Predict the 3D structure of the following.
Amino acid sequence: MNVMIFGTFDHLHEGHRFLIREAMKRGDVTVIVGRDANVEKIKGRAPRQSEEERSLTIQKEFPDVHVVLGNSDDFLEPLRLYKPDLLLLGYDQQLPPGISERDLSIPMERAEAFEPERYKSSLMP
């Protein structure tokens, strides 16, 4: 099974690692890393690490996953290109702006939370 996850993955933390490991339990994993400009548009602030740094960190720590930068203009392009069997979201992760579950051509699951009081990205320094 081919599993896709996506996110910012700024300063990779245990919550991110948990999501990646959960995806790996389900099959071969493609990680879509949010582009700097998209992160700023969606979150209202630039990521602390560049898209290249975030991608390299994941690839270094998880050499068995396929890490790709997202598309700057089309959030659904990676789904069409890689044709995953499953989209796995974090427990509190939202779909990109303008995208709903009806737009997805594949099943979607949510991973369980991993110590959200401690490892939620918005709580990280």
Remarks:
- The beta strands are 2-7, 28-33, 66-69, 86-89, 108-110.
- Residues 2-123 form a domain with the Rossmann fold fold (CATH 3.40.50.620).
- The chain has a mean pLDDT of 92.
